[in-house]
UniProtKB/TrEMBL annotation:
InterPro entries: Claudin, Claudin_CS, PMP22/EMP/MP20/Claudin. It holds the Pfam family PMP22_Claudin. Gene3D superfamilies: 1.20.140.150. The chain crosses the membrane at residues 12-30, 82-100, 120-141, 161-185. It is a multi-pass membrane protein. It is found in: Cell junction, Tight junction; Cell membrane. Belongs to the claudin family. Keywords: Cell junction, Cell membrane, Membrane, Tight junction, Transmembrane, Transmembrane helix. This is Claudin. Claudins function as major constituents of the tight junction complexes that regulate the permeability of epithelia. It comes from Zosterops lateralis melanops.
């Protein structure tokens, strides 16, 4: 029961990381740029993501527009798209493989095979978390290197919420995948199994008897 609970906890943790990775991919708030107006008040805010950007006016109106061409995005965004999608598909396959490895499934009766499936799923989740961590940290580093709090060009660049969600999601995938990998290496031996040795003796009337020790 304890192993089943741990296995389920690892799968839930990794799955939450996967769902967070989907949110990270979809949200257009990887990079936030604030254009300062008179009196250092925010006149316009631009949110940039992997697939679109949004412009928020000081009046409260927001307009979003998808990128129409690859030429509109920077090389790090192009590379991040590929790595994030790779992470999502890897976690997708890991999720279904992990279902085959859970103790509660009835698709397989062999516990050793279930453990092997859990180990493979865990390794894929860990790989997905690492692949997600790379683009998130890459874009975050680019933003921080260009960070200018004084806003010489009347523009302040900051990290968006998607960056933080990506970091948390990556950590959850790696943690949950690590738990599944650990459980996948554990042998499923019945602690209550007993080995019996057969000893032949003769009974009172001369018949052979078997004693189990």
């Amino acid at each position: 029961i304890a192993m089943m609970t741990t296995q389920t906890g690892g799968l839930v943790t990794a799955t939450l990381g996967w769902l967070g990775a989907i949110l990270t991919c979809a949200l257009p708030i990887w990079r936030v740029m604030t254009y300062m107006g008179s009196g250092m008040a925010a006149a316009q805010m631009v949110y940039e993501g992997l697939w679109m950007n949004c412009i928020s006016e000081s009046t409260g109106q927001m307009q979003c527009k998808a990128y129409n061409s690859m030429l509109e995005v920077t090389p790090e965004v192009q590379g991040s798209r590929a790595m994030v999608l790779t992470s999502l598909f890897t976690a997708f396959f890991a999720f279904f493989i992990a279902l085959l490895g859970t103790e509660c499934t009835r698709r397989m009766d062999d516990n050793d095979k279930k453990n092997r499936f859990s180990g493979v799923a865990g390794a894929l989740f860990v790989a997905a978390g690492i692949v997600l961590l790379v683009p998130v940290s890459w874009i975050a580093t680019t933003i921080l290197n260009n960070y200018n709090p004084m806003g010489v060009d009347n523009m302040r660049r900051e990290l968006g919420a998607a960056i933080y969600i990506g970091w948390i999601s990556s950590a959850l995938e790696i943690l949950g995948g690590g738990i599944l990998c650990y459980l996948g290496t554990q042998s499923q031996q019945d602690p209550y199994s007993k080995k019996y040795n057969v000893v032949k003796t003769c009974g009172p009337v001369g018949y052979a008897m078997k004693e189990y020790m």
